[in-house]
Design a protein that fits this description.
With 106 residues, the chain is mostly helical. The chain is 55% helix and 0% strand.
């Protein structure tokens, strides 16, 4: 049966659910899809906030992304550490900003 609501999940997101040494995700496609939609929506909701922080308050791109990353690392954020890194990377992509993830692991 063809699912009209089926979304394409980026490999970068699916990779969050593939444990080291394995080749398959440790969650169902439906579960990964739901988390992807949540994280993609979160990145899109943060877009205007990040832009306003940068333009209206004059905060540098790096500092805006750091602040977002710090907020997403809080237990109440609704995302785990790997998802938080993905959301910040996606937000940087949406904004057209650079984000050297290796410099911001946490």
């Amino acid at each position: 049966m063809y699912d009209h609501n089926q979304i394409e999940i980026p490999e970068s997101f699916v990779a969050l659910y593939i444990p080291p040494g394995r080749q398959t995700p440790n969650a169902t496609r439906a579960a990964i899809g739901a988390r992807y939609e949540f994280c993609e929506d979160l990145a899109n909701h943060l877009f205007e906030y990040a832009r306003a922080q940068h333009h209206d308050l004059g905060i540098g791109e790096h500092d805006v992304l750091e602040r977002v990353a710090l907020g997403l690392r809080q237990p109440t954020s609704g995302v785990d550490a790997a998802e938080a890194r993905w959301v910040v990377r996606r937000l940087a992509e949406l904004e057209g900003w650079s984000w050297a993830e290796d410099d911001h692991a946490g």
